[in-house]
Amino acid sequence: MDCPSEENLIRMALRDIPDVALTFDLGQRRLTVQHPGPAEAVFARLERLNLGAHLVHTEPVPQSGIQPASTDETEARVLWTLLAINGVMFLLEVGVGIVAQSAGVLADAMDMFADAAVYGVALLAVGRSAARKLQAAHLAGWLQLMLALLALAEVGRRWIQGSEPVSALMMGVGAVALVANVACLWLVARYRGLGAHMKASAIFSANDVLANLGVIVAGGLVAWTGSAVPDLVVGSVIGLVVLDGARRILALR
User: Fold this and answer.
1) Other CB atoms within 10 A of residue 141 CB
2) Measuring CA to CA, which residue among 202, 243, 231, 246 is closest to residue 5?
3) Residue 30: beta bridge partners?
4) Each residue of 167-196: pLDDT tens digit?
5) Taking the mean position of all CA atoms in its chain, how far away is CA 106?
6) Cα 21 to the chain's mean position, in Å?
7) Which of 16, 75, 178, 228 is least surrounded, with the fewest CB atoms within 10 Å of its CB?
8) To 5 degrees, how large is the angle CA 209–CA 210–CA 212?
């Protein structure tokens, strides 16, 4: 484990094991699992992720030591908050992206729209079975795949036809989006144990923080070099990151 995305993939792989609680130490690449079943059942799922998992130690844990899951009401409240944040940021970034002629900002807006769709789909899965939650996660993955391809097509068009991105607007909206996505990541990180659809949301939010930093850096490079190439590069990278996030979600079983 060396990044939030790997942590979220692990949580998804163990999503339907009853009464499971996970504690991650990313610095030491160590995972502690508390659950009432055999260790082999967990280890077999971790091996299939090809993250280099190996069993270090097992010991009995009383049932009372396993953390309970949050309620459906709490899950729905968090999802509505995430949906509102991403919906507002999508509208803001589309407007700024058009005015600023920024492929990076428009690609990030597509990412925000994909996330809003994720949270909308996740709301439909609240209180439903693990299988239904996995279906919701897969639907979100297909939506993200479609929007990633649209973002990459727009970047390709700008490579061919040219653009003059406004660096100040890029950095400004990038900073606002960064604050919004850090808030989303903080919220969803508290409830990643609720099902595959919530864990999908965690993957997207972690990717978004990196995308926002890329937009800010690209804006600075556009100002420094006077070239549109940094904006086009970051737009391409964001599109590919969104595409990879969709691949990870669609690979869940």
Assistant:
1) 24
2) 202
3) 25
4) 899 999 999 999 998 888 777 766 655 555
5) 18
6) 21
7) 16
8) 65
**For residue 221, which of 165, 183, 173 has the smallest C-alpha distance?**
165
Contacts by 14-17 with C-beta closer than 8 Å and gap 24+? 14/42, 14/45, 14/46, 15/130, 15/133, 15/134, 15/195, 15/196, 15/199, 16/130, 17/41, 17/42
Give the residue among 16, 218, 187 at the shortest CA–CA distance from 115: 187
Longest dimension (CA), the chain: 64
* Mean pLDDT of the residues in the chain: 76
Q: Which residue in 120, 234, 219 sits closest to 171, CA to CA?
A: 219
| Residues sharing a CB contact under 8 Å with residue 159, sequence separation 6 or more, in sequence order | 232
Q: What angle do CA 32, 33, 35 make, to 5 degrees?
A: 155
> The whole model's pTM is what?
0.61
Query: Which tens digit of pLDDT belongs to each residue from 84-132?
Result: 998 999 999 999 999 988 988 988 888 888 778 767 766 766 655 666 6
Q: For 19, left (φ over 0), alpha (ψ -120 to 50), or beta?
A: left
Count other Cβ atoms within 10 Å, centred on residue 234: 30
